[in-house]
Amino acid sequence: MPTLPLSLTAMCALACEASLLPRIRMGIAVVAREVLMESSDTPGYPLRISLARTALSPSEAMAASMTPGLVVAPSLLIAAAAAGSPDPAQMAAAVTDDLILDAIRKGWNAAAGVVSSSPLTGAP
C-alpha cells in the first residue's frame, strides 16, 4: 500500500475547511448539468441522471457528505500536500477547481450507485 501524502488528521482538516465546501458544492452542480446533457445510451444512465437531478441544486449537507470522498482523491491529496503547509486554508487553496471537477466526475458513478469494473476511475 502506498504512503499517503497527508496524514488522516490533515485530510480531516482539509475536508472540514470552510473555503472548500462551497467550491465542492458548485462543482457538484456543474457536473450534474453535464450529466443531464448525456445520451441515454451512457452506461449507468438511469442512476447517473437520477443523481444529477437531485444534485443540480446541491444542498450544503449533500456537498458535505461528498467532501471526504473527494478529499481522498489522489490528485487532491497531492495538490494539498504540495501546499507545504499544515494550514487547511492553504491546502484548500492549492486544490484547483479543475482537480475538484475531475474528482467529482470520476466519483459520479460510485455516488450514483452505478456498478462498474473500476469504481475509483468512474469507468463502466
Helix content: 55-70%
Instruction: Specify the structural class.
Output: mainly alpha
Distance between the termini: 25 Å
Write down the secondary-structure element order: HHHHHHH
Spatial shape: globular
Largest sheet: none
Spans of 5+ residues with little confidence (pLDDT < 50)?
none
How many beta-strand runs? Answer: 0
**Estimated share of beta-strand residues:** under 5%
What is the number of domains?
1
Mean pLDDT: 91
Number of discrete helical segments: 7
Tell me the Rg in angstroms: 15 Å
Q: How would you sum up this structure, described in words?
A:
This protein has 124 residues and is mainly alpha-helical. The mean pLDDT is 91. The relative contact order is 0.19. The chain has helices at residues 8-15, 20-36, 45-55, 60-71, 74-82, 88-94, 97-112. The chain contains 7 helices and no strands.
Provide a quick synopsis of the model.
Helix content is 65%, strand content 0%.
List key phrases describing it.
single chain, mainly alpha, 124 residues, 0% strand
